[in-house]
Specification:
This protein has eleven helices and eight strands. The chain is of the alpha/beta class. Helix 1 packs across helix 2 and helix 5 packs parallel to helix 6. It is globular and about 55 Å long.
């Protein structure tokens, strides 16, 4: 009998982290063989570690390498996979081949996620792997995440952390308990999430954002949240309030402005509201 994909959000009747962990490992063992969509972030690293514990050599980590992934994140994913000791595959994919993604409407993430996971599922099928695993947790249900709709529509794609009822706090706590260096890694998102809706996504714009964040991050302490949002000729910096004073210091501000001007941004602004996840979702699409 074909195994049915469980309903997303149908959480088990357990409450403690120990019970959730046992549930997660038991669920993974029943899959027999699985590939984790591995970004190297806190969620996917814990999921990869759990899948490796449950399935041993029948577990694999697959990192989609695309123009939307910062090079630093790709290198970090390689290092973490090596540290875990899990088989690691780099799968080249370009969302820029997808017109619905490039047009950058508010459903951009839906089209991106579906495209990526269809490619992952095809790779898994070619390698006789029945399941592809996504690292979403229950906190992801609280935000505007059209990509999660795409996951729910695909057969043989599951979100085990979500199914186990794990929150982001649970993920960080278990990661720390298991000695994973990613336990306190700041949340990350693809480079496209920095570009205002309605502005076409191009390779050039993605590289502008990546280089701009490298420049600004050089003035920030480790593990501090920061984003450079792309609004055409304007670069809007969102940063943890604890470092805004340092970024606004005259010499630092002037140096950042000069460097970002060299990337094509005429204006650089420091957002006084500070960093907040998904802030671009509050803006209307410019079309």
């Amino acid at each position: 009998m074909k195994k049915q994909k469980p309903r997303q959000g149908g959480f088990p009747l357990v409450s403690s982290l120990k019970e959730k962990t046992e549930y997660l490992l038991s669920m993974l063992k029943n899959m027999e063989k699985a590939a984790v969509a591995f970004s190297g972030g806190t969620d996917s690293t814990l999921l990869a570690a759990a899948t490796l514990r449950a399935l041993g050599n029948n577990a694999a980590a697959v990192t989609v390498s695309s123009p939307t992934l910062p090079k630093a994140e790709l290198e970090d994913a390689k290092k973490l996979a090596d540290l875990l000791g899990i088989g690691h595959i780099i799968l080249p994919v370009s969302e820029l081949d997808l017109a619905d993604f490039v047009s950058n409407g508010k459903d951009r993430c839906y089209h991106c996620k579906k495209y990526r996971f269809e490619k992952l599922r095809l790779w898994a099928e070619e390698n006789s792997i029945p399941w592809v695993l996504d690292g979403s947790n229950t906190d992801d249900l609280k935000d505007y995440r059209p990509g999660m709709k795409a996951i729910s529509e695909l057969e043989r794609v599951r979100s085990p952390l979500l199914e186990a009822g794990m929150t982001k706090k649970d993920v960080r706590a278990l990661s720390r308990e298991w000695g994973l260096p990613s336990w306190n890694k700041p949340a990350a998102a693809c480079l496209a999430s920095r570009i205002a809706y309605g502005t076409p996504i191009t390779r050039e714009a993605l590289r502008q954002v990546e280089k701009a964040e490298e420049i600004v991050r050089a003035y920030c302490p480790p593990n501090i949240q920061m984003r450079v949002r792309h609004h055409g000729f304007l670069a809007r910096i969102e940063a943890d309030p604890r470092i805004m004073k340092d970024l606004a210091a005259p010499e630092t501000a002037a140096a950042i402005s000069r460097s970002l001007s060299g990337l094509g941004f005429r204006f650089t602004a420091l957002d006084l509201a500070g960093y907040r996840m998904g802030s671009m979702n509050d803006l209307p699409a410019d079309r």
